């Protein structure tokens, strides 16, 4: 959605057109329509995490999956993040999506995004064959049995009038195929906004849809990253932006009732600090205000960028893909917005807890450390829990014995290091995933005596100005600046301070 999104590129493959006509000639499938009011935060699909596990852990039923794009400009074949190793296939996210659907939720696959829209790999910008674009949309629809597709159109894609026209023509073809087969299909557009509604380029996308007879069911506004150097009350600005959208939709669709027009609107926030900086900070109080207002108006979709940012891991920091930049508990924004979905948040009938005992340990490079992963039934019946580890550094191998347990059981996690492991302290996240819930536990691993991390960074100097990402060495450790700083000594700013300890060297 912004330049922080992962930039992945690869080569193309071909999808046989013969397999992409199921809607026109086949029978209706059982894709379940989305609720009339839905909370669907974005999921960053390039992280290697399980969408079903994070959805369960956060209490979220629905997710917007980002992003689908071609691997190279000129291609007509979409992949997740443009990565040819992640094709549109039941083998890629298929089991996760089925799990979420079985829990009463679903996903909204999203085409485009900032990276695709600035590299010519948004499919309608990349592909000049309207029927092949429609085929690609159809393949996503039928592979994952979903009922809504999203078009995230920003920056360069807004100005590509030929791409705008092809996209809407392809949507019309897809909608005709769906109607012929009796399949439920919704199309949403996600567009940037001003505080008063769509800019002319965004409005032109919708006008072209009307011209082409393409039905737009929801228009989501990205109510952040205004970049106007103005003072912002982010909740109030959301309200004025969506009210402006409502007024624009009323002119485009004069036959619709007020309730129908509000039912076409959607809101996408960015929790905490957005890409512009602290002047555009969306707080938890803002979230509560927006939630109440959205319910009162009959807004269709509430979302934010992104689920992986919904934690307080970097308070005082800039915008990042994995934390909000403000002080908060993990899943605070999800818990505020989850009841927006008709039927409220997910409350698993069967649930469990997950712990790591001990929660930390130190090993010399070349040795192994262990911890016991414990589970316990907290609600309902015991369920099978699959275990996985993430955040494991280079030179370390994680293994579970056993790799799955019945809730109430334990597993031994072994972290085996090599002599080339990098000295430092690492947060290993253990995820336990069950049919109806998922939870995480953290183990802190400290490695000493490794050969992979000598103090090669320049020594810290008190008079030097450092910016985010720059590294220094100081008192036998390597350090990385989280944001702009000068005169602040590494090791004195605390856990949430400017300097991140990369470990001994």
Principal-axis shape:
globular
Mean pLDDT: 88
Q: Let me know the largest β-sheet.
A: 10 strands, mixed
Question: In CATH terms, what is the fold-level topology of the largest domain?
Answer: TIM Barrel
How many H/I helical runs? 13
Total tally of structural domains = 3
Give the N-terminus to C-terminus distance in angstroms: 37 Å
What does this structure look like?
- By secondary structure, this protein is α/β, with parallel strands linked by helices.
- It has three domains: 17-340, Glycosidases (TIM Barrel, Alpha-Beta Barrel), CATH 3.20.20.80; 351-448, Immunoglobulin-like, CATH 2.60.40; 455-505, Carbohydrate-binding module superfamily 5/12 (Seminal Fluid Protein  PDC-109 (Domain B), Ribbon).
- It contains 13 helices and 24 strands.
- The strands form five sheets. Strands 1, 2, 3, 4, 5, 6, 7, 8, 9 and 12 form a ten-stranded mixed β-sheet that branches. Strands 14-21-20-16-18 form a five-stranded mixed β-sheet. It has a four-stranded antiparallel β-sheet with strand order 13-15-19-17, with no helix packed on it.
- Helix 8 (161-181) crosses helix 9.
Which keywords apply here?
single chain, TIM Barrel, Seminal Fluid Protein  PDC-109 (Domain B), 3 domains, ten-stranded mixed beta sheet, five-stranded mixed beta sheet, 13 helices, 26% helix, 27% strand
Please provide a brief summary of the model.
One of its GO terms (biological process) is polysaccharide catabolic process. The chain is an alpha/beta fold and 505 residues long.
């Amino acid at each position: 959605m912004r330049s922080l999104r992962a930039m992945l590129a690869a080569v193309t493959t071909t999808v046989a057109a013969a397999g992409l006509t199921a809607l026109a000639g086949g029978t209706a499938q059982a894709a379940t329509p989305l609720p009339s009011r839905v909370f669907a935060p974005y999921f960053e699909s390039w992280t290697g995490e399980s969408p079903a596990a994070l959805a369960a852990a956060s209490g979220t039923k629905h997710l917007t999956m980002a992003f689908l794009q071609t691997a190279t400009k000129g291609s007509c074949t979409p992949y997740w993040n443009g990565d040819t190793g992640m094709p549109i296939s039941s083998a890629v996210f298929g089991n996760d999506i089925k799990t979420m659907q079985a829990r009463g939720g679903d996903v909204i696959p999203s085409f485009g995004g900032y990276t695709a829209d600035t590299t010519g790999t948004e499919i309608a910008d990349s592909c000049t064959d309207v029927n092949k674009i429609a085929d690609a949309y159809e393949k996503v629809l039928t592979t994952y049995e979903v009922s809504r597709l999203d078009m995230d159109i920003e920056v360069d894609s807004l100005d590509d009038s030929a791409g705008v026209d092809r996209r809407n023509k392809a949507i019309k073809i897809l909608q005709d195929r769906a109607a012929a087969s009796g399949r439920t299909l919704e199309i949403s557009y996600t567009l940037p906004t001003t505080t008063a509604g769509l800019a002319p380029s965004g409005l032109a996308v919708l006008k072209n849809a009307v011209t082409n007879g393409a039905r737009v069911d929801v228009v989501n506004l990205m109510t952040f990253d205004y970049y106007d150097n103005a003072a912002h009350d982010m909740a109030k600005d959301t309200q004025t932006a969506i009210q402006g959208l409502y007024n624009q939709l009323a002119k485009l669709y004069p036959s619709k009732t007020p309730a129908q027009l509000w039912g076409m609107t959607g809101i996408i926030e960015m929790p905490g600090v957005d890409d512009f900086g602290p002047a555009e900070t969306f707080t938890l109080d803002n979230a509560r205000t927006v939630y109440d207002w959205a319910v009162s108006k009959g807004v269709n979709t509430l979302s934010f960028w992104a689920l992986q940012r919904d934690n307080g891991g970097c308070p005082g920091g800039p915008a990042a893909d994995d934390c909000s930049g403000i002080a908060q508990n993990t899943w605070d924004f999800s818990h505020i917005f989850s009841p927006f979905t008709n039927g409220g948040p997910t409350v698993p009938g069967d649930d469990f807890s997950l712990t790591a005992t001990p929660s930390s340990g130190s090993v010399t490079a070349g040795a192994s450390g262990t911890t016991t992963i414990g589970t316990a039934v907290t609600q309902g019946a015991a369920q099978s829990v699959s275990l996985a580890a993430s955040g494991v550094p280079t030179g370390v191998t994680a293994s579970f014995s056993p790799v799955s347990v019945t809730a109430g059981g334990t597993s031994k996690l072994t972290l085996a290091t090599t002599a080339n492991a990098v000295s430092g302290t690492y947060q290993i996240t253990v995820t336990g995933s069950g049919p109806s819930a998922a939870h995480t536990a953290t183990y802190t691993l400290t490695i000493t005596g490794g050969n992979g991390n000598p103090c090669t960074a320049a020594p810290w100097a008190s008079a030097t100005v450092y910016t985010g990402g720059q590294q220094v060495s100081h008192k036998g450790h390597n350090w990385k600046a989280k944001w702009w700083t000068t005169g602040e000594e590494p090791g004195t700013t605390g856990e949430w301070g400017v300097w991140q300890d990369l470990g001994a060297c």
